[in-house]
Write a structure and sequence with these properties.
Largest sheet: 7 strands, mixed
Structural class: alpha/beta
Order of helices and strands: EHEEEEEHHEHEHEEEHHH
Oligomer: single chain
Shape: globular
Length: 194
């Protein structure tokens, strides 16, 4: 069974992290919420999150590690030296890693975006381009770089697309769930509701 960790830091975008946990658990992918510094994490919109565990070396054992965004949360992920070391080790071992919204700034800081295709929240590409100038920024909803095993996405509204991209990278079929969650309906009809 595939195993995913979603790392939550104080100031994270709650919807971006919880959407991944929700979608992956619906797909029967073992998904754990990992608190960066404690089991209790306060999200950017003052939603208190209770994680399954606190960050430790077991992060190396997951098939994929995902970061939600949020400016403050992303900065907390970026600046945590222990997390940086674990993520670099994962990258060097050829494991999948994912970051969305502002969180690619952490990946850029760790060196994970060098030569990689990626996206991020509008405006944060200014930071990523400075830190990782060989990275190739795209303006698509999600970007899956199979060579570097990096998945990225843009922001809160793209959280489900991000979660489905994560599952698909792990070889899990998502079409039935996309239909069941009305994701396809949304994609086909969103213009009429705007």
């Amino acid at each position: 069974m595939k195993k995913v960790a979603v790392v939550f830091a104080d100031g994270c975008e709650e919807i971006e992290g919880l959407s991944v946990v929700d979608v992956l658990r619906r797909l029967n992918i073992k998904t754990e919420m990992v608190g960066l510094t404690s089991q209790q994490i306060m999200g950017d919109h003052q939603i208190l999150l209770t994680c399954d565990k606190v960050l430790d070396d077991s992060l190396l054992d997951y098939d994929l590690v995902a970061f939600p965004g949020g400016k403050i949360g992303a900065e907390n992920l970026r600046d945590h030296k222990g997390l940086e070391k674990l993520m670099v080790t994962r990258y060097e071992a050829g494991k999948w890693n994912a970051a969305m919204c502002a969180a690619p700034i952490a990946f850029a800081h760790y060196g994970l975006l060098n030569g990689a295709d990626y996206t991020c929240y509008p405006g944060f590409d200014e930071q990523t381009k400075q830190v990782a100038p060989t990275g190739k920024f795209k303006e698509t909803i999600t970007v899956t770089d199979h060579k570097n095993k990096i998945i990225t996405s843009r922001g809160p509204a793209t959280a489900w697309a991000y979660a489905y991209a994560i599952a698909e990278a792990l070889g899990v079929e998502t079409k039935q769930l996309q239909q069941g969650m009305l994701y396809n309906y949304l994609a086909d009809n969103i213009q009429t509701s705007l």
